[in-house]
Automatic annotation (TrEMBL):
Its main location: cytoplasm. This is Selenoprotein S. The keyword Endoplasmic reticulum applies. It comes from Phaedon cochleariae. Gene3D superfamilies: 6.10.250.2950. GO terms for biological process: endoplasmic reticulum unfolded protein response; retrograde protein transport, ER to cytosol. Keywords: Cytoplasm, Endoplasmic reticulum, Membrane, Selenocysteine, Transmembrane, Transmembrane helix. The lineage of its organism: Eukaryota, Metazoa, Ecdysozoa, Arthropoda, Hexapoda. Residues 119-143 are annotated as: Disordered. The keyword Membrane applies. Residues 132-143 have a biased composition (Basic and acidic residues). It is found in: Cytoplasm; Endoplasmic reticulum membrane. Belongs to the selenoprotein S family. It is a single-pass membrane protein.
Length: 143
């Protein structure tokens, strides 16, 4: 195996380039690493917002130029947007009606269950307990 590695010969300029790159990293490696970390921090902290703002402005300018040249595209886009809005409003209305119907069904079932419960028990008199049913309360009468 060692013989095969020795058989491969690279051009002299390739070897000297690799040797100079390795030499640079040997001499200045920590400086390069620290500079890279600082640059990454600065990009994340400050430059990203500037770059994003620039991209948004550029996209808006392209959009404006595209639709300024062809007003039919604007009309078609606005029409499609309006249709989508109407579809969403119709879906919302249907969902709201369905929800209202379900709530009314639940309330009707609750009322029916209460009516069945009290009709089976014979009903209740408000404020009366089982022991006080035969007592009458008249104004001015003491218990």
């Amino acid at each position: 195996m060692g013989d095969m590695e020795e058989d491969i010969q690279y051009p002299s300029h390739f070897s000297s380039t690799i040797a100079s790159v390795v030499g640079i990293f040997e001499d200045y490696g920590w400086y390069i690493l620290i500079s890279g970390v600082i640059m990454a921090y600065l990009y994340q902290r400050y430059l990203r917002t500037i770059v994003d703002h620039y991209r948004i402005k550029r996209d808006e300018a392209e959009y404006a130029a595209k639709y300024h040249k062809n007003p039919d595209l604007v009309t078609a886009r606005l029409t499609a947007q309006e249709q989508r809005t109407l579809q969403l409003q119709e879906k919302y209305r249907r969902d709201a009606e369905e929800h209202k119907r379900k709530i009314e069904e639940k309330e009707a079932k609750k009322r029916e269950a209460l009516l069945n419960k009290y009709s089976e028990e014979g009903g209740h008199k408000l404020g009366a307990s089982n022991n006080d049913e035969n007592k009458s309360f008249k104004p001015g009468e003491k218990l």
